[in-house]
Amino acid sequence: MTSDAEGGEPPLLFVDIDGVISLHGAGAAGVESRLANVDGALVCLSLTAARELRALAGRFEMVWASGWEERADEHLPYLLDLPRGLPHLSFARDVGRSHAHWKLDAIEAFAGDRALAWIDDSLDETCERWAARRGAPALLVRTDPARGFTAREREVLARWAVRRR
Question: 148 with 46: CB under 8 angstroms?
Answer without folding.
Answer: yes
